[in-house]
Amino acid sequence: MNKDQVKGVGEQIKGKVNEALGKATHNPGKELKGDLQQAAGKVQKAYGDAKENAKDNVKRNAR
């Protein structure tokens, strides 16, 4: 697991918290912020996943 994967998951969690707070307090801005954080976290995690897959492929092909 690399830093982009960890940061991406962390951002997704923060986004879920903000979304829930926004819903609970009827604050659409906070809810939107949470949605955007979750989306950004998914993108960052996907980037980290791709880096990890590339690294694994290089290791496999080096054999």
TrEMBL record:
Biased segments, Basic and acidic residues type: 48-63
Gene3D superfamilies linked: YjbJ
InterPro entries recorded: CsbD, YjbJ_sf
All residue ranges annotated as the CsbD-like domain in the record: 4-56
Region Disordered, residue ranges: 1-63
Family statement: Belongs to the UPF0337 (CsbD) family.
The protein's name in its UniProt record: CsbD family protein
